[in-house]
Amino acid sequence: MLGDFLTRCLILLLGYAYPGFECYKTVEKNRVDNEELRFWCQYWIIVALFTVLERVADVFIGWLPMYGELKLALFIYLWYPKTKGTGYVYDAVLRPYVSRHESDIEKKFREWRARAWDLAIFYWQNCTELGQSATFQVLDYLAAQSKKFSSKSFTKKKDEFGPTPSAPPLSSIRESFFENNQNGRKNKKGL
Length: 191
Prior knowledge:
mainly alpha
């Protein structure tokens, strides 16, 4: 056993960094070999799929002994020049499955994207409402503190200057603001 830290470092280097550099070199060559580019694209497709599946199934497979070492061996098997396992895994496993279920996968992705957008809008609306109510609570608190402060410090001077004018409570200001806002919206809709 190599140890968790060392295994993770080797996976980063040999599973991601080295193949990434090889893919870069393949793309940046003057005369790109189509087969070599296809090989590296297939590699990254398999690695992406494996990474997604691993995140989902980590609870079940992460505890297996030597899991990290097996993952490292799989990555090396996929790109090693003598085995080039990417072609086998892609042609024997991935392509047949995806080609059979491509329309279902596409439909699920569209559905998930729509749900994610709806969820983002829902949270945005909730956050703005919470922010608005928190702001008004802070303003109410500050107004109450201001009244306490003014009533304590100016009680002696009150008689000297006469009665102090009082402002309407913040809650009534807020209610009138919302009423004016809603009346304005109704007027705009009526136009």
